[in-house]
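Q: Here's a chain of 304 amino acids. Please give me its 3D structure as tokens.
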Amino acid sequence: MKRLLLLAIAAAELAAPGINTQGNPAQATFRLSTDAVAVDVSVRQNGRPVGGLAASDFRLFDSGRAQTIESIEMAAIPVDVTVVLDTSGSTSGLLSHLKADVGEMAALLRPDDRIRLLVLGDEVDDVFGWASPRGIPSFEPIHVGRISSIDDAIFLAFMHRPDVGRRHLVVALTDGVDFNSLIDSASLTEAARRAEAVMHLVLLDGASSLPGTAPRPWFNVYPEADGRRLLADAARLTGGASHVRTLRDPVVATFREAFEEFRRSYVLRFTPRDVPRGGWHELRVEVPGRHYEIHARQGYFGEG
């Protein structure tokens, strides 16, 4: 019931400006401050983050039109970190390790950062809300569910709107096989397009003991055949990435890599000019003359 209520509220918030229940693109609203748009941009070379760039080093295009970058920010911005933890039956054997990982993740954060934990199984639970990384409440016990609500959990994570002057990082740890979500992948993709967050998806390869195309014996529902790929697409749309890890790989190392990249990425702010206000705005970010690997969110929806 709690999950249904939360999703109903969240879906209503999205549907009002334009994401419909069929998942078809429609006009949605990107939160603007005096019409300014903020774009998270990760710049890497040979696998390492590139620092020291100025606004003049970037070229930013909104719907094909060059824009003026008005400000650039970097590491000093406090971060809200949402950890989405799969506690369904397929990952139950990893639960003690994953819970320890959450504590180690918190230890990597700064005092002015915040962390929250969403766990997913039969339903989605916000375990302890936003907390200081130096004072995470106890989260024992965690219920192990029989089926996964992965899309629901990530959808709810995307609903967080960070306070002005903060950024939002979502890290989802899951096998990627969804049997129970009310939100479908198309709707999740649209939510990713307008999320004020960067998501890194950690796919736990081999966590499920059942084939990805087989129904659970107690729940006669098939997961989406392309569910894992669509989750990876959602991460990419936010400017993040997906990482496949085996059961023996240290998840914290992946988080450290994603978090450090996020910390050392840039926030470019601009006021859209010479483009329509409403609808989908495709974004493109370049650093001319350099062979850098650039990851940035692919666009946003503007108010009409």
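Q: Can you summarize the key feature?
A: Residues 239 and 297 are 4 Å apart (CA to CA).
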